[in-house]
Amino acid sequence: MNESLLIGRAEKFLSQIHGFDGKVGDVHSFLGTYSQFKDNLDRLYELRDYMELKGYKAPFRSLKYGRVQSSEMKMDDLHDVSRHSQFFRMRAAAKKNILDRVKSAIASHRIILGHLEEYATVTCTSCQSRYRGHELGKLYPAKCGCGSSQFNLDINKDGFYRLGILKYLPISGDYMVKMSELSSLGREAFRGLVRILKQEKRGIVKTISMVVKVMEDGRWIRKRVKIDAQDQLNYEKRIRESYGNNARIEFIQFHRKRPAIINDKHVQTALALGYVGYSEDLGESLLPPLLQQKLKNESNLLIYDASLKKAEERAKIQKEWDDNLNLKEDLLREILQEEGLVDGEGQMNPGLKEDLQLRDKLQKDVFQENPRALILWDLMRYYLSTSYDRRSKYSGPFPYLRPSLDINQLKAFQEFPSQTVTMLKDFQDEDIESLLEMDKIISFKFSLEKKTQGLHIKMDPAMGAAILNIKGQVPISRAAQIFKVTPAQVKKQKVRLETLQKPGSPKAQKFLKLVQG
Q1: Residues 116 and 238 grouped into a single domain
Q2: 394, 193, 196: which is closest to 280 by C-alpha?
Q3: What is the extent of the structural domain holding 216?
């Protein structure tokens, strides 16, 4: 296919992908939405694969840079060469940009499908077959294996989803447009979330490069060797097996990989935009009642805002003939003095000054700290309520999420904004709690998974609630409410955890020692 036609085809398809408001509706609407996004994702994968096959992943590689060496070339020829180079650079940039948009749309679609799969279970009314999670893909196109098209929709109370973030995702790959629409505080919050999701694991050896001296045909020769690193790899033994006992390693270099918490930049961007957009919308309704409760004199603050707007308008008119750099500040001071909020010495009313500082702080808490609190909380809940195998095999609502984190990555969970959590609970009824050592709670879950490997112990939301009760000091009733389970289920898992940590009988102790090696 012609390159221009391929780019046009991709742009046309992306423009046809409509936004999603996060509302699901009845079972037919739910299955229709799921099928539509599944179809879109399949077509996006086809476009991505074909583009990468055509070299769109590295489009600048074929361009030749540098000055023409020939001294006999005329100025007209140089101009033509420069013009042609500019044309090919523009075409290469168009290739790169459209591939980025397709990958961004793929990331958003995977996130949406992950949330929909967590949201509900579909039951066939004819054969009573239940479809949940990735099994929903078997209902394509909205038909059960028995041939029936009649279903019931049951919302998963213990499922993990936050449908409110979905309408802020760059579904058509328009992540640059979404970023430009954020407020200044929103952009700061966005950068902060991307830094959290990019938190890297300490370097793991991926490959090993060596220079090996080998005896061949009675003389020593040197060979460059590259092998994949594996756990407990004896690379010296591998070299001798391949090149004989006389082989000697002269040089060795370890190449390391540093995977992030979310190991894909497009998913990082999409999730950050989703949570920041959702939090900005949340903040618009959260901030007014918060200001009414906290401010000393809201009317003075309204007068200040009106005065600032008036000063900005006057400054625009006067700046053409006035070179004063502080013109706006001077005009604002004059207007506030007329309103009685600034004294004769230019000092602002102390109450107004405190209210301005308080408003700035509240705005920062609402628009910058809210998205950070929500995404850290959601990641923690997901880690606590799912097993290592599930996180490894299925992407869920967080595609490319690392199934486990190391000490360096857990640092992202150390600073959990407790004051923001209080606001979310009091004004938005969020099921969220202030935790002092969230990183240690998640770390305990990972250590538990290692200890119980092979024991077939179910890692479910009730287990997550029990861990939150034991390590987070959250009451059982509250932990059960957060994970949408019953207190009886939490108590049962808590007893099981305590037994695993301190087995009561000698037989249980001996069994655990045998299992753990």
Answers
A1: no
A2: 193
A3: 204-257
Closest CA to 270 of 196, 200, 168, 119: 168
Q: Is 134 exposed, middle or buried (0-12, 13-18, 19+ CB in 10 A)?
A: middle
Backbone angles phi, psi at 330, to 5 degrees: -65, -45
Q: Are residues 512 and 503 in contact, defined by beta-carbon separation less than 8 angstroms?
A: yes
| Other CB atoms within 10 A of residue 22 CB | 18
**pLDDT tens track for 7-54:** 889 999 999 998 888 888 888 889 889 989 999 999 999 999 999 888
Contact present, 156 and 118 (Cβ < 8 Å): yes
CA 511 to chain centre: 41
Sequential DSSP letters for 223-253: EEEEEE--TT--HHHHHHHHH-TT-EEEEEE
Rounded distance, CA 35 to CA 14, Å? Answer: 17
| Contact criterion met (CB below 8 Å) for 311 and 328 | yes
Structural tokens at position 30: 């739910």
pTM exceeding 0.70 = yes
Q: Which of 141, 170, 176, 112 is nearest to 31 (CA)?
A: 141
157 and 210, same domain (yes or no): no
- Residue 380 inside a domain? The answer is no
**18 shares its domain with 120:** yes
What count of other Cβ atoms lies within 10 Å of the Cβ of residue 338?
A: 10
Burial string for 277-302 (b: 16+ CB within 10 Å, else e) reads bbbbebbeebbeebbeeebeeeebbe
Residue stretches of the chain with pLDDT short of 70: 1-2, 61-84, 140, 202-203, 230-233, 319-325, 455-456, 501-517
Q: What are the tens digits of pLDDT across the range 412-439?
A: 998 888 778 888 888 877 888 988 889 9
Number of domains in the chain: 2
Task: Give the integer Cα–Cα distance in Å for 291 and 284.
Answer: 12
Same domain for 160 and 208, yes or no, is no
